[in-house]
Every structure is written in C-alpha cells, then in structure tokens.
Amino acid sequence: MHYANDLDVEYILHSSILYRDDNNNAIAAAYTAAMGEAMTDKTKAQWQTMADKLKIEARAFINGHYVDAHDGATRTCYNPATGTKLADVANCGIDDADRAVQGARDAFESGIWSKRSPDARRAVMVRWAQLLEDNADELALLETLDVGKPIRDTTGSDVPGAIRTIRWSGEAIDKIYEQVAPTSHDTIGLVTRIPLGVVAAIVPWNFPLSTTAWKLGPALASGNSVILKPASNTPLTAIRIAGLAKEAGLPDGVLQVLPGPGSSMGAHLATHMDIDGLTFTGSTPIGKKLLEYSGQSNLKRVFNELGGKSPNIVFADADLEKAAEAAAMACFYNGGQTCTAGTRLIVEESIHDRFVDMVIEAAKAWQPGDIMDPATAMGPMIDQGQYDTVKDYIAIGDSEGCTRYGGDSNIFPESGGLFLEPVIFTGVDNSMRIAQEEVFGPVLAVIPFKTKEEAINIANDSIYGLGGAIWSRDISNALSVAEEIRVGTLGVNNYFGGDITVPFGGFKQSGNGRDKSIHAFDDYTELKTTWIEL
Ligand code: NAD
Ligand code: MN
C-alpha cells in the first residue's frame, strides 16, 4: 500500500491489527477522522484509565542511562488540552550537552556501532521497531497527552508511522550497494558512503515522534551517533523510545536524548566544534540561524526542514466533493499546526462560491473536542503563545478586509485548554499577510483564479515551497500545472499523500534536506572516493 486513498482508509478501518498497518500517512487518519470513525479499539474511558496509571520517564538519556540534568534543573510539562501537569522534565544545559557529545564521540570512534556490519545494525533497528510496536498504545497516549493531539491521530498516524520509519530504515541499510566508477582498466574508483560521525537532531513540537523517527531511522542505521534534542515542550516520547533502543541492543552513547531549551542548549549543539552534522525540523527563522551557527563554528552539515504556506489548487473539473473534504483536512488536521498544511486554497472562479460552501460544510467535521475521545478530530493549540499568534492572524485577516467564516468564539472553554475552531477567509489576495505568512493554526485563506497561468503564479508566489496539491479530472491539465509548481511534495487529486518510500522536504525557504526514503541517507553520510592504481 503506497498511496493514500480511499482504499487505504478502508483497509485501516477493517484492519483488526491497527499498529501493523504500514501506512505512514496522515491522510488516512485524517480522512477517517472526517468520516467520524475511530482509529483505536479502546474507548475514551479505557484511555483515561491508562493515562491515570501512566508512569512517565522524565529524565535525559545519556550514555545508556536515564539521568537528571547536571544541575538538577527541570521544566514542567503540561497537557495542552487541560493545562494539567504531566511531569517535571530534566532541563539539560551546556554541561549535559558536552557530556553527551563526548559520549557520542567515544561511541563513534570505538566502532561499536559505526563499524558494525549493516546486517547487525539492521537487526537492532528492527528489534527496536518491534519494541515500539509492543509499546504502541503507551507511546500514542504519551504523545496525545504531551502534544494535545487527538488519540485518533497518534494511534492512527504518528505511532504507526514512526514504527514503520524505524523498521524501514533498518531494513534498508543492508540492501544499499555502493559504487565502482567507470575508470580505465588499471585503476579502480570506489565511491562509498561513510557515516558523518556525531549528528545532532533538533525537532519541533507539532509532530515530535514522527519527525524524530524520520531523523533517527536513517541517521542511526547509517552508523552515526545521534544527539536528539526534542522541543522543550514535547520531550516525552523521545525520552521513552531511547530506553527501548537500548533494550533492542543499541550500544550506550549511540543515542543521547537531551530535553531542554533551544535558545541556549540547542544553540550550543549547533555551534559545537565536535558535532559533524545537524538535522533540523522547525521554523524558517531558526533554520537560518542554524546555518549561521554552522558557519561560525565548524561548517557542520546542516539539513533543514522548515515552514510552509502550501497551495491547494482546485480546478472546476475536479471531483469537488472529494476536493472539499480534503481541503478542510489539509488545513485543519492537527489544528493547522502542520508544516505542509494546505493553507492557501486556490479555487477556479467559476466554482468559487459553491466550492467555498462545500468546504465550510466539510470543516464541520473538524470541531475540536476531548483529545482522549477516539471520535475527536481536532485538539488544542500547543500553548498560549501559539493560541495568541493564531488569534492575532485572525484579527489581521479581518483587518485586511477578508470575509471570515468561524472563529468568533472560544469553544470548548470548560476544558481549560487552548481550543480554536476552523476559520475560513475568503476574498483573500495572495499579497496579504494572511496568504504569505505561516499561521500554524486552523486558518484557511481562499484565493480565486481565472486562468491556469494565474493559478501557477499564485501558487509559486511564496517564500516557501514545501507541499501542495492540484485537483483536476483532466490529467494533462493537472500534470502540466504540477510541473510548474515549485514545492517538495505535490499531490495530484490527494493531499498529504506519500509514505516512507518517497522523499519529503522543501524548496526555497522551506529547507534543503530530505527526510524519508533512500534519499534521506544522503543527509547522514559523506561521499568518499578511494582511487586505486593497480
Ligand atoms: P522552532 O523553530 O521554534 O523550534 C524547533 C526546535 O528548535 C525546538 O526543538 C527548539 O527548542 C529548537 N530551537 C529553538 N531555537 C533554537 C536555537 N537558537 N538553536 C538551536 N535550536 C533551537 O519551531 P517549532 O515552533 O517547534 O515548530 C514549528 C515550526 O516547524 C513551523 O515553522 C513548521 O512549519 C516547522 N515544521 C517543519 C516541518 C518540515 O518537515 N518541513 C515539519 C514540522 C514542522
Ligand atoms: Mn508537552
């Protein structure tokens, strides 16, 4: 199963072994959510009981052991849906980072992992994936509580996707061949890939487990030592999976997990002279800083996966029913806190009014609710800061003269959480801030077009180039437009399509690296030439 489509949803719905599903894809969960179907066979009460009993590991993981921060500092982690405290998490600083880098370097130089055969590394990665699968419910619950993601999403997408990513990366590593160059008869030119060495991975709060797996899969399988810094407000699954990696046989020091602040400890990793590579998922402004830090320090390889403002183009001849449901899902999934969210809906003028009505109708499936209830499709904003940012953008859209549907009232206030309902702006011009800037909330901007050329120009008129989609029944129309759109991942008659087998990353200011697929291994290895004269 490689593509997200209705068949995948059918498969998942009727699959009794939810976690065995190999679909690494948000769309299946999202479509299912829109259809009002649960992705888990546990009830809300059962999840709640499990949450009440949950023991949360909140320490850093350094050199194979769970440890407190060197200075004993902690940072309290809250459930964004309720405001209740989850844990006091180790808040690592410079000393912890230096210790972790030294341990990672020692492990790398020892060869205990870096020089282990690909087959042996494969075996550890696959065992680790199995342990993740054995603990899938716990991981889903942790991610739900920590991030405020509906349990449907974590059981249906984040956790099975992460499992598949780790398993796939492990399974790939003993199947990749290296190259012999076409040289003259008395020479041999070997072109090999060797691990970078010590790699730092810095990840965001919106898809903590998914983005972590995208980094750790290829980085560890390639033989690197990795220092993982989760976002300071969503460290819990990263901490948990490190212990499972040890249990699977990953040697001490090869994976270090440092929960802590980005601005100090994260920046220290990024400027560290003994870190060879830095893989990042997060915002564009921080991605720019990381490139500067690299230049100021040791020119470590930096691969960025950054923000987006992705175009979703709907032609009049599209399957409008399907396109409208997907347009709502593309923007409102994960509360719009998705880098590839389809936030610019670019609609052919002749169907504009009718289609907007259909999207408004489809948005009703994305009312926020209790994240522990398997029927809930949308959770809260991650924190007060993000909530306020989104509210500000709603005010900006109003002041730019757009027409707004939704967003008048704070809903679900009894939760104490940070919930927003879907907002749709029409009458948007692509030059407006609401069309140019990443909101990172459930706010859709609808922009009309008359000609195909105009649609292409609007879609490309952005500093970003991450995701997008085109909807048309005329395949030559769709493909001729697809060819012109400058984004890393483009759907034709689907949104959020793709799985672990295809690369994911951005053009322009959406970044330079590629997660997923065999191409991800390029970010964690150096190409080496060995020229042999006979
Ligand atoms: P962020 O850039 O604020 O933080 C990301 C990570 O960087 C966190 O771990 C943070 O602690 C760390 N950090 C912050 N300042 C740092 C510094 N000076 N040096 C080193 N590390 C630092 O982003 P966020 O708010 O956590 O995540 C949302 C952003 O991530 C959005 O812009 C979104 O589009 C983007 N994102 C991109 C992708 C992708 O693959 N392209 C995927 C998910 C999210
Ligand atoms: Mn949290």
UniProtKB/TrEMBL annotation:
Residues 67-529 form the Aldehyde dehydrogenase domain. Pfam families: Aldedh. PROSITE patterns: ALDEHYDE_DEHYDR_CYS. This is 4-guanidinobutyraldehyde dehydrogenase/NAD-dependent aldehyde dehydrogenase. One of its GO terms (molecular function) is aldehyde dehydrogenase [NAD(P)+] activity. It comes from Sinobacterium caligoides. Belongs to the aldehyde dehydrogenase family. Keywords: Oxidoreductase. It comes from the Bacteria.
